[in-house]
């Protein structure tokens, strides 16, 4: 693997006698990982039913290694949202972030969703998960992964950080900034990133990161926690960005993080900083752990008397349309809904998170749990609704075994001849929902979302 000379010279200067070990890691195979989705299944059960060989990741409490020749994305359990495929070290930021039930959480640079889906699982349907990515196309992929995971208390947006900072001053309990970066920690995983690296690009990213972290600090509640992470080694993009925040926002402190074998401290000396608390940051090296490279810092904002000025959401519901939705719910589901939180936007029904904030003027892809669409006075349930349920919450369900041919046929969008209750049925595999079907005369019309089908 050919690395730029300027990059090698810098890394040798930073690492000293550790440099040769770092260079040798490129000769080794990369590691492949997935983690269990706590909204659907716990780690032990996933390990017990896994159809392929997996081994626990020693520094991630719900993560597993899998073999390169396996195809976990081509299995019905993936379509049921039981796990998320993610590079092991990239699991670390969301894994160590202390999320509590009821938190209002912002994932500021969220696509493709690896960290958002773990934050949502930690919330367990409470509070609010606000997932944002400035790229609208990437935000669409983010939305799919969130819905596949069964997260219902979510808002997905596509805005620059400065616009959100203007809108949500002092609002969020926890903010994760997995900042865009030069990607040095992922050179082994994705060698194509090497050709885009330059000393100039490192400085360009650092400038962007400094603006993003200041915007995040503005949105954080007094006493709240901000977790900053990158997948790069450059001190300019790591310690220097944290120092920039400390210099511009008095009252922030760097909190200690749990460390596993192979985790290094932050290096204030690399930027000639007097902030010795930068040692509380952690850096993951690919020659010291079974994974790629990452940098993580956890910061707390001091308690003050100031309050957020964010207003509550203003509903625009149509009572007749809400009635159509509630009739479907009562006829087909065994679920307690707070019907006052159902909102109708352009004939589409959403179940908004409790305490939903005003989002007027923002470019949004999702506000809450998308329940389905009203079509000529009838309700068509969504794929998102199916994925946010458990199979026993449907009055009528069809539960296939993972070994049945019908599972793959269903995921491909085929209609199935099967005995079932007339009307809407929630279709699942081994007790986990996959999507909807509508039965009539022992023929199940397939309602699995076209864009998600098995190819």
Automatic annotation (TrEMBL):
Is S-adenosyl-L-methionine given among the entry's keywords? Answer: yes
Transmembrane region(s): none
* Residues the record marks as active site: 231
CDD domains in the record: AdoMet_MTases, RsmF_methylt_CTD1
- Does S-adenosyl-L-methionine appear among the keywords? yes
What is one process in the GO biological process aspect for this record?
Answer: RNA processing
Q: Which Pfam families match?
A: Methyltr_RsmB-F, Methyltr_RsmF_N, Methyltranf_PUA, RsmF_methylt_CI
Q: Which residues form the SAM-dependent MTase RsmB/NOP-type domain?
A: 1-302
Record-listed S-adenosyl-L-methionine binding positions: 109-115, 133, 178
Among InterPro entries, the record links this protein to:
Methyltr_RsmF_N (IPR031341), MeTrfase_RsmB-F_NOP2_cat (IPR049560), MeTrfase_RsmB-F_NOP2_dom (IPR001678), Nol1_Nop2_Fmu_2 (IPR027391), Nop2p (IPR011023), RCMT (IPR023267), RsmB/NOL1/NOP2-like_CS (IPR018314), RsmF_methylt_CI (IPR031340)
- Alphabetized GO MF terms: RNA binding; RNA methyltransferase activity; S-adenosylmethionine-dependent methyltransferase activity
Q: Which UniProt keywords apply?
A: Cytoplasm, Methyltransferase, RNA-binding, S-adenosyl-L-methionine, Transferase
Q: Kindly give the PANTHER family that the UniProt entry links to this protein.
A: 28S RRNA (CYTOSINE(4447)-C(5))-METHYLTRANSFERASE-RELATED (PTHR22807:SF30), NOP2 YEAST -RELATED NOL1/NOP2/FMU SUN DOMAIN-CONTAINING (PTHR22807)
Family affiliation: Belongs to the class I-like SAM-binding methyltransferase superfamily. RsmB/NOP family.
Q: What is this protein called?
A: NOL1/NOP2/sun family putative RNA methylase
Q: Which organism is it from?
A: Natranaerovirga hydrolytica
